[in-house]
Every structure is written in C-alpha cells, then in structure tokens.
Amino acid sequence: MRSITVQNSIPQITFVLSNVFLPTALAAELLGVSLSGKAISQPCCLSEALPLDKTQIAPVSSQPRRPVLIATAYTDLTLPTLRRGDRGRSVQLLQQVLSDNGFLGAAGVRLRNPSGAVVDGVFGPITESAVRDLQQRYKVPVTGQVNPRTWEVLDMHENPYRAPLPWKG
C-alpha cells in the first residue's frame, strides 16, 4: 500500500481528490491531512497534479497529522472480474484467501475431490463452488464469478490479515 501526504488548503485537497483519486475518495480531515488507501496503486506526483508552485502551498496546522483512510475502490477499474476458466496470479490470490478461510477446502470435500482444493491459479469447479459458498454466506448474488461486490465482501469479511488482492494499476 502506498500513500501520499498533502499539506495544503481545502481547495487544493478538493482538486487532488476530484482529479487524482476520482470519485471513490472520501473527504479528508480539514487540518493535517494524510491520504492513504489501496485504491492508490501508483506513485503520484503532486507537483503535476496541482497547478501551483510550492511557495503557494503552506501547512494549515501545527497539530500532529493523523492518517485518514481514503475509500478502497472495489470496481471493474481496480479489480479483475474472475470466472471459471481464468488462470493466473489473480486467481492464485483469490484462492489463497478462500483457502485461508476454509471455503476452498470445504468445496473440495463437497465435490468429492479434497486433493483438488489447491492454490494453483486455475479457476475451476472447486474455486467456483467456494466462491458460490462465500456469496451465499454474505447474501450477495450467487454467480460463481468474482465481481467487484464479491471482492469487497471477500476483503472486508474474510481477509483479516490483509492478504494481497490483485489490484490493477
């Protein structure tokens, strides 16, 4: 996770939020702003983002800065939609979280193939069944596909140790 610190006035923060972080950003605190979040996946150069020279940017508070979490954007732009037949690192990351929380193993047993419940990067019938179980548990549409809503549920409810997700960017 990368973060940037912004020490300037509210209009400048608004500019950065609306033009750099897109509409997924939350409003930051008025004083001593520090912006961070998963949606920021690339380093950012504020001097390019702000049409100001550095002499115009002044700290607005001498109070200690506190980090403010900016929204995590669970969208098609930030995460891949995965489905049966997909392969690769994104599928491995998904399978690891499913395995760590027992969904993958339970699906393997239910499908009478416990040895097939492995983190192999192949989105097959066991991974699909595990995703369906997750979706059913959290009352989201049961599709067997990992769309933005499923990523959000997986990350917020079944990823307490913050295992990496396949963020785009």
Which labels suit this protein?
169 residues, 3-stranded mixed beta sheet, 2 domains, single chain
Give structural notes.
The protein has 169 residues and is mostly helical. It has a three-stranded mixed β-sheet, with no helix packed on it. It folds into two domains: 67 residues, no CATH class; 70 residues, no CATH class. Helix 4 packs across helix 5. The chain has six helices and three strands.
Please give the share of residues in helix: 25-40%
Overall 3D form: elongated
The end-to-end distance, rounded to whole angstroms, is: 12 Å
Order of helices and strands: EHEHEHHHH
Helix-strand makeup class? mainly alpha
Poorly predicted runs are: 1-9, 15-50, 52-58
Number of helices: 6
Q: How would you state the average pLDDT, rounded?
A: 74
Number of strands: 3
User: Biggest sheet, strands in spatial order?
Assistant: 1-2-3
Radius of gyration: 20 Å
For the sheet with most strands, the description reads: 3 strands, mixed
Number of domains: 2
Percent in strands:
5-15%
InterPro entries: Peptidoglycan-bd-like, PGBD-like_sf, PGBDSf
Protein name: Peptidoglycan-binding protein
Domain Peptidoglycan binding-like: 88-154
Pfam families: PG_binding_1
Short description:
The chain is built from six helices and three strands, in the order E-H-E-H-E-H-H-H-H. With 169 residues, it is mainly alpha-helical. The chain folds into two domains: 3-69, no CATH class; 89-158, no CATH class.
Q: Helices and strands in order, then pairings?
A:
Layout: E1 3-5, H1 10-19, E2 33-36, H2 46-49, E3 66-69, H3 89-100, H4 103-110, H5 125-137, H6 148-158
Parallel strand pairs: 2-3
Antiparallel strand pairs: 1-2
Domain Peptidoglycan binding-like: 88-154
Pfam family, one: PG_binding_1
Protein name: Peptidoglycan-binding protein
